[in-house]
Design goal:
Layout lengths: L1 H6 L6 E5 L2 H6 L6 E2 L3 E6 L14 E7 L2 E7 L5 E9 L4 E8 L8 H10 L9 E6 H9 L2 E11 L4
Parallel strand pairs: 7-8
Antiparallel strand pairs: 1-9, 2-9, 3-8, 3-9, 4-5, 5-6, 6-7
C-alpha cells in the first residue's frame, strides 16, 4: 500500500483498506486525505420484509451480466433512490445504495435492497457491502454485522 500511495500523485485516485483510518493514514504520504469513516458489512441472515412502495413511486430494474441496478422513480419522475449489486461465483455485493434527501424515511432504501436481492442466484453466497456511518445504523437494524472498519483516502483536487 505504501509503495502504491507514493507512486500516485494525481488527484481523484482512491486507496481503500479494510482497516482503521489510522492504519491507512500511517501508510500514506501527507498529500492524501482520509475520507469519512465507512464499514465493511455482511448479512449473515438478514431478512427483508417485502414492502410496497409509497403511492406514486415505481421500481425499475436493469440487468447487464452479473450486475443489477435498481431505481425508484418518484411521482414527479425524479430519481428517488437507487443502488447496484453484482454476483460473483461466491459473493453477492451491494454498492451505492442511496436515497435522495427529499425521499428519505419512506422505506425506499429497503425497497432497493429487496429488489436487488431478487437478482441473487445463490442464496448461500454471503451478502456484502460498504456502509457509511448512517448506513451502518440502518443495515444493523436489517440484520447486518460489521466485519471491519473500511478506510478510504484520496488526493484532493487543487
Amino acid at each position: 500500500m505504501r509503495a502504491i500511495a507514493h507512486g500516485i500523485t494525481a488527484p481523484r485516485h482512491y486507496l481503500k483498506l479494510c482497516g482503521s483510518d489510522d492504519e491507512l493514514r500511517n501508510a500514506l504520504p501527507a498529500r492524501w486525505e482520509i475520507q469519512p469513516a465507512n464499514y465493511f458489512m455482511m448479512a449473515a441472515a438478514a431478512t427483508l420484509d417485502t414492502k410496497l412502495l409509497p403511492h406514486g413511486y415505481r421500481m425499475e430494474l436493469h440487468g447487464a451480466g452479473p450486475v443489477t441496478r435498481a431505481c425508484v422513480i418518484a411521482p414527479d419522475g425524479d430519481l428517488a433512490a437507487s443502488g447496484c449489486a453484482a454476483e460473483t461465483a461466491d459473493t453477492f455485493i451491494y454498492d451505492r445504495i442511496e436515497t435522495a434527501q427529499d425521499h428519505r424515511r419512506k422505506g425506499l432504501g429497503v425497497a432497493v435492497m429487496i429488489a436487488l436481492a431478487t437478482a441473487r442466484k445463490s442464496l448461500a453466497s454471503p451478502q456484502l457491502l460498504v456502509a457509511t456511518e448512517d448506513g451502518r445504523n440502518l443495515y444493523a437494524k436489517l440484520g447486518w454485522t460489521v466485519l471491519a472498519p473500511f478506510a478510504a483516502a484520496a488526493i484532493p483536487d487543487i
